[in-house]
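Q: Could you write out the predicted structure for this multi-component system? I'm mainly interested in how the pieces pack against one another.
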Amino acid sequence: MKRAIVMLSGGLDSATVLAIARSEGYTVSALSFDYGQRHKDELAAAARVAEHQGVTDHRVVRIDLSAIGGSSLTDPSLAVPTHAPTEIGRGPIPTTYVPARNTVFLSIALGLAEATGARDLFFGANALDYSGYPDCRPEFVAAFEALANVATRDAVEKGARFKVHAPLIALTKAEIITRGTALGVDYGMTHSCYAPIAANACGRCDSCVLRARGFVDAGVPDPTVYADVDGSNGKR
Amino acid sequence: MKRAIVMLSGGLDSATVLAIARSEGYTVSALSFDYGQRHKDELAAAARVAEHQGVTDHRVVRIDLSAIGGSSLTDPSLAVPTHAPTEIGRGPIPTTYVPARNTVFLSIALGLAEATGARDLFFGANALDYSGYPDCRPEFVAAFEALANVATRDAVEKGARFKVHAPLIALTKAEIITRGTALGVDYGMTHSCYAPIAANACGRCDSCVLRARGFVDAGVPDPTVYADVDGSNGKR
């Protein structure tokens, strides 16, 4: 039995990664984080996605990154920025970057891998249609994998090799959606918005903009429920 | 102003590291973790040590590693092992190893460093008088530092270089005690025991054995309060 840990935020990317890992024959432990994010709605989405994809081991680890702050995702006093679609990923890294977040998350995934005998970690990083986050790039994935293979008892004593899979890292959002749709992912269950309004997507944050454009480019109907912020009934 | 993050467990090693960082002129944020450890008494020690050494920014981040398990420090159903003094660090890595623990802790320290503008992380790893933990070795420290310098916005955008200091890594426990004593560390405030009995040291776990031997070898009176487990009033 091949075991894997899949980091499952509840968003579009991680739901696709989960389907990829399962299609490759892994028995999956899904791992989500309640880290003080303002878009905690994603955790309900993660639970829905895990259940829909037949995952029986879904863990939510709480870690209060708001004690650290420094991000508009964990500090309510900072506004979530918006950008024109063509600007996303081209300017400075936005305040939605959470300091060292993916390093923290992968570290905990590594601990769970060691505790459960898994050697494979799956991670929905994407370095194409993204906001330029440093911890979504191939250099980061490679450096974490190198660390994992000196940091752990299983690596030192058993010669285990941990592998960090980032199967989306070079795909466009449209390619991700096409891939996931073929694998049966129900994107209506997922949540990507950074700044949800009554659990519905704002349609304006970078994450919403990238996601919406992905559905258009993929030619797949967008199942996202948008908040009716401007009386347009979510159409914009 | 030079800012540093010091990981402060409340044990002998980290109390010494804190004194070293302060002696080098750093303004310190001390960081402790409430991670589901059975020896939570160390957190009270961390608070005492931070206050005694004049640290005004001491943060305790909660993260429930018992959701991961795999260690006798986080799973109450596993016993904390004991070894003869000469066996410690020579056999298999004991169950007191917490999967990926120091990777998780350093990751959070890195996030705090980025959020506070610090570039220096201090870590009480020791690879001499220790239990053979993989994440206390120089290879681990180097790999984490390499990761930090690709994982973060400050590294990517500002060319910042993060440095992981492990000033105790090649010292014996006696050398650590000698150094800390010279810097004014009050070891009576620290807590090292993995399996305390009513907040007092058991005197038998690996951590107690290494510590007690360190005081003897350093010729420094041992201020540790041992539990009176066998009617010997803590003398053994």
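A: Regarding packing and overall arrangement: Chain A touches chain B through 49 residues (CB under 8 Å).
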